[in-house]
Amino acid sequence: MRKACTPSKFVADVMNKVPPSGIRRYFDLASGLEDVISLGVGEPDYVTPWHIREACIHSLECGETSYTSNYGLVELREELADHYASKYGVNYNPNSEILVTSGVSEALDVAIRAITNPGDEIIVVQPSYVAYVPSIMFAGGVPVIISTKLENNFKLTAEELEAAITPKTKAVLINYPNNPTGATMGKADLEAIADVVCEHDIMVISDEVYDCLTYNGGHTCFSSLEGMRDRTILLNGFSKAYAMTGFRLAYAMASPKIISAMMLIHQYSMLCAPITAQIGAIEALKNGKHEMEKMVRDYDRRRHLIVSGLNKIGLKCFEPKGAFYVFPSVRDTGLSSEEFAERLMNEQKVVTIPGNVFGEAGTGFLRCSYATSREEIEEALVRIEAFVNGL
Ligand SMILES: Cc1ncc(COP(=O)(O)O)c(C=O)c1O
């Protein structure tokens, strides 16, 4: 008889060190419950605008079903270069400085792998998107955490960054507008970060997937700051701004040396992003501004509704200036983030995500997404109030 296989012994050690996403757990718990309102998902509640879907359908009808260049369609890269030049005044060469990827998720993974040697430290600013720490660990790097604070509106300060840098630091990973807090950083805030980054000669990975979703003031693109273009790996995509999560389409922009290193990984692991999604992205850039701005205006109205509603209930809520999340404190209720989220779901059928899922810095907070219809937000607020009053 042949020897029995023990599959677990073949799993790489790092897999046992990376916990599963805390967000998933809440969806699993909620599935099966009826009449649930979800403020849990970080996904637009809109369907992709029709003209974008139509461009994709047309391309399929024309038989455009092939691989593309590993870098992505030239036309898409040219549109992206024009878009950044006109919107942010930063120039990228479409032939050597732009890589089209399958989501910011892939761009992030490839960016980290392209710059990380075993043991290199990458600084993560928390509360943060759940994929950052695992991506660094999968690449053999060491995540070093900075916990931002409500008192600073969850901004990263130059002092905090300086204190976290060691001789092993390779890069700092920033994300403004931020998931999960909705915090943004203005030009002056980012200039202070740029000074520290240059002084210590490290890179910046800037995840700007929410750049179009800012309220009360525009977005500052990190690579548009003086001297920062070649020090930044800029990540952005179509999921959030154009309600295109299922298309899995994004891009990275950086200096040619970094992009060709990223390309090497992308080429052998992904080959190219799907052509239909790339065609949709071209259409979004060419003709999608109007629809996108309409969605952003609607998020803004919902933002006001949920921020004032939560504050009235007594869940103190920092005013988010970007993305589509609010991050109220539940500390005054005496419950932990997890107790609050779990009981709110079981007793009132409202799904939220405990803040500590996004790192220690999120302890005592809750992430609520307002990429949900106005009616659902209103009903969720009624239920949350009933829950808090019943404590
Ligand atoms: C900050 C941040 N980065 C990246 C992603 C992943 O985006 P994509 O759909 O482009 O992979 C998300 C999704 O929620 C996010 O919030």
Automatic annotation (TrEMBL):
<comment type="subunit">
    <text>Homodimer.</text>
</comment>
<dbReference type="GO" id="GO:0008483">
    <property type="term" value="F:transaminase activity"/>
</dbReference>
<dbReference type="GO" id="GO:0006520">
    <property type="term" value="P:amino acid metabolic process"/>
</dbReference>
<dbReference type="InterPro" id="IPR015421">
    <property type="entry name" value="PyrdxlP-dep_Trfase_major"/>
</dbReference>
<keyword id="KW-0808">Transferase</keyword>
<protein>
    <recommendedName>
        <fullName>Aminotransferase</fullName>
        <ecNumber>2.6.1.-</ecNumber>
    </recommendedName>
</protein>
<dbReference type="InterPro" id="IPR050596">
    <property type="entry name" value="AspAT/PAT-like"/>
</dbReference>
<dbReference type="GO" id="GO:0030170">
    <property type="term" value="F:pyridoxal phosphate binding"/>
</dbReference>
<keyword id="KW-0663">Pyridoxal phosphate</keyword>
<comment type="similarity">
    <text>Belongs to the class-I pyridoxal-phosphate-dependent aminotransferase family.</text>
</comment>
<keyword id="KW-0032">Aminotransferase</keyword>
<dbReference type="InterPro" id="IPR015424">
    <property type="entry name" value="PyrdxlP-dep_Trfase"/>
</dbReference>
<dbReference type="InterPro" id="IPR004839">
    <property type="entry name" value="Aminotransferase_I/II_large"/>
</dbReference>
<dbReference type="InterPro" id="IPR004838">
    <property type="entry name" value="NHTrfase_class1_PyrdxlP-BS"/>
</dbReference>
<dbReference type="InterPro" id="IPR015422">
    <property type="entry name" value="PyrdxlP-dep_Trfase_small"/>
</dbReference>
<dbReference type="Pfam" id="PF00155">
    <property type="entry name" value="Aminotran_1_2"/>
</dbReference>
<feature type="domain" description="Aminotransferase class I/classII large">
    <location>
        <begin position="35"/>
        <end position="384"/>
    </location>
</feature>
